[in-house]
UniProtKB/TrEMBL annotation:
The lineage of its organism: Eukaryota, Metazoa, Chordata, Craniata, Vertebrata. This is heme oxygenase (biliverdin-producing). GO terms for molecular function: heme binding; heme oxygenase (decyclizing) activity; metal ion binding. Its EC number is 1.14.14.18. It is an enzyme of class 1 (oxidoreductase). GO terms for biological process: heme catabolic process; heme oxidation; response to oxidative stress.
Length: 318
């Protein structure tokens, strides 16, 4: 046999000690009826809507408010706590056991470290489940209790996204928020038990495709995945509203502070007020008059006002 015709098996990306299944490096053997393909095709529109919501677009541009990022981390903590609690309860379920990778995937502990970084040692007393996140968490507990096979949808939607686009978000957040290069505040995005994200995703999809599911069950998983995308967009919308509120509050504070500074600057330098008044701003014109009057002796100020009034009267009569 020609040794050149033998290809080396590819690693599944799991570090030593984890599950070892050799996965082909291409998708040629996939069928449209495989669960992974049905999910990819059936959630395409939901995925596009999630990517194009304003919160995500702003995030990708690096327009990130630190307080909003902290709140997003809180939301993720509650979502993953619920999901991983239900996965643990159902780890021996025939549809959950094949995709049970706690050492490689579970994020709750990583998120707890991030929250400690952002909020301090007493972080648990400072966070709470938000109104926008609660329906998501409730739904995860509901399916975990009544219909565990649907946990496949929630697991796929979150973990596969974290191993894909989540890595881009990590880099953007690190730059925008100037977070430490050592990874504090970004533990959520670091999968220390996985050496190759691509290899592991192939492993995970192959495990999903091996689940014994009839067409109806597969479609229910696709539907639940679309529902999970909807829950994520609810969280995004809530975070966007919080961000807008913070921006408005900051703008009001900045404007008020600017007015105080400007008034003080006018008193110190009326030439600044004159320059701004020349640009057509009546507020500065009024401030200029007040400043000049304040600096003139009472008699000169009175004479100046009389002269100004007389000039306007003469102009009007002419």
């Amino acid at each position: 046999m020609d040794s050149n015709s033998i290809s080396e098996p590819k690693s599944n990306g799991v570090k030593k000690g984890g599950a070892r299944i050799i996965v082909d490096d291409n998708d040629e053997g996939l069928s449209p009826t495989d669960l992974s393909e049905m999910l990819a095709e059936g959630t395409k529109e939901s995925h596009d809507r999630a990517e194009n919501c304003q919160f995500v677009k702003d995030f990708l541009r690096g327009h990130i408010i630190k307080d909003v990022f902290k709140r997003a981390t809180v939301a993720l903590y509650f979502v993953y706590s619920a999901m991983e609690e239900e996965i643990e309860k159902n780890k021996d379920h025939p549809h959950i056991a094949p995709i049970y990778f706690p050492a490689e995937l579970h994020r709750r502990e990583a998120l707890a470290r991030d929250l400690e970084y952002f909020y301090g040692a007493d972080w648990e007393s400072q966070i709470s489940l938000s109104a926008g996140t609660k329906p998501y968490v409730d739904r995860i507990h509901e399916v975990g209790e009544a219909d565990p096979v649907l946990l496949v949808a929630h697991s796929y939607t979150r973990y596969m996204g974290d191993l894909s686009g989540g890595q881009i978000l990590k880099k953007v957040a690190q730059r925008a928020l100037k977070l430490p290069a050592s990874g504090e505040g970004l533990n959520f995005y670091q999968f220390e038990g996985i050496t190759s994200h691509r290899g592991f995703k192939q492993l995970y999809r192959s495990r999903m495709n091996e689940l014994e599911l009839d067409p109806e069950a597969k479609q229910r998983i696709v539907d639940e995945s679309n529902r999970a995308f909807g829950f994520n967009m609810m969280v995004f919308s809530e975070l966007e509203e919080i961000g807008n509120t913070i921006k408005e509050e900051v703008q009001e504070q900045v404007s008020g502070h600017a007015e105080l500074i400007q008034e003080d600057d006018f008193n110190k330098c009326p030439y600044y007020a004159a320059k701004m008044a020349a640009n057509g701003n009546p507020t500065y014109a009024l401030q200029l008059v007040k400043t000049l009057v304040g600096r003139l002796p009472c008699q000169v100020a009175l004479a100046a006002w009389v002269a100004i009034f007389a000039g306007f009267t003469a102009w009007y009569l002419l």
